[in-house]
Design goal:
31% helix; 3 helices; alpha+beta; 240 residues
Length: 240
């Protein structure tokens, strides 16, 4: 107890700091969070782009593989008849007459070309099933016309494989790869800028082998030259 006559002592009140952030601290924190968000978004965006490009290139490779497999299937199914040409290359389009699927009762005309008006795409065209000589002749001539100036109806029957810079065809005959347009074995190059396609339907002999040389576009998943050799299944003896 305070005794009488003694002065009353005053208690000192200390200031109490309230917890929280200053405005500057908040701005610094928000800036750091925004920077981290931007970096995270760029990382995720880069991963998404890389995944998209990888998927696109994988699709291109699979499409090319499917196209080359179809090329081999078409050549394996070549047929020789007294009234129809089996195989013809005029410098612009490769036309062939082949059997339909197993147990089929007709023939089809198949054509392969690279057409500039389609963006340099390597294209495959196939006719309906043919059962008469007249139908075959019409389809054979139609395939040549399709390679030069495709109609709207013919475009519905074509399949785009992939863009090419150029393509070449060689036949293996007389133990050498030669130009199909020339009987001179010393000439071995075939350009992709030929004259107008011929509509002749003379019977031809299937060569011992067919060499396909594709010059792929730089923008493709695979670039440069790709060579695929086909050997006639009924050929006997060792050929290379």
């Amino acid at each position: 107890m305070q005794q009488a006559g003694q002065p009353r002592q005053q208690l000192a009140v200390l200031p109490v700091r309230v917890g929280g952030f200053t405005l500057i601290e908040l701005l610094v924190a928000i800036t750091i969070m925004a920077l981290m968000a931007v970096l995270s978004w760029r990382g995720l965006d880069g991963m998404a782009r890389a995944q998209s490009q990888t998927s696109q290139r994988a699709d291109e490779v699979l499409t090319l593989q499917a196209g080359l497999a179809q090329w081999k299937v078409d050549l394996d199914a070549l047929t020789q008849t007294p009234f129809a040409s089996s195989l013809d290359w005029d410098g612009r389009v490769l036309r062939l007459t082949r059997r339909t699927a197993p147990l089929g009762d007709g023939l089809v005309v198949v054509a392969w070309t690279r057409r500039s008006d389609a963006g340099g795409q390597w294209l495959r065209w196939q006719s309906p099933v043919l059962r008469t000589t007249g139908a075959w002749s019409d389809a054979w001539n139609r395939a040549a016309q399709w390679a030069q100036n495709a109609s709207t109806e013919d475009r519905t029957r074509e399949v785009q494989i992939m863009p090419l810079r150029d393509w070449q065809i060689f036949y293996f005959r007389s133990d050498a790869w030669t130009n199909p347009l020339s009987s001179d074995a010393s000439q071995t190059a075939v350009t992709a800028n030929p004259p107008a396609a011929s509509t002749a339907t003379s019977q031809t002999t299937v060569p011992e082998g067919v060499r396909l040389v594709l010059t792929l576009a730089p923008s493709s998943a695979i670039s440069g030259k790709l060579t695929l050799d086909w050997v006639r299944p009924t050929l006997s003896g060792d050929k290379s």
